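Blinded run. Sample ID left blank on purpose so nobody reads anything into the name before looking at the predicted structure. Input follows.
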Amino acid sequence: MKKSFASSLLSRGYNVHVYNRTKEKTQSLIEKGAVFHSTSRDPALVADLVMTSLTFLFFTVFLPF
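Blinded prediction complete.
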């Protein structure tokens, strides 16, 4: 999932949890309110919906409801 999609979710008030092996790559989303997790398992534990992009393995977005 691209940053623009996650940014759009954040701007609409959704809780977005992100994971990437390199935290710096998610820094702009963290600054907008995303919650960073250091493992891919952690955000999945708090999410009802998990979205990921396999085309560009950039980061995974987790939306807790």
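Unblinding after everyone has recorded impressions. The longest helix spans residues 3-11.
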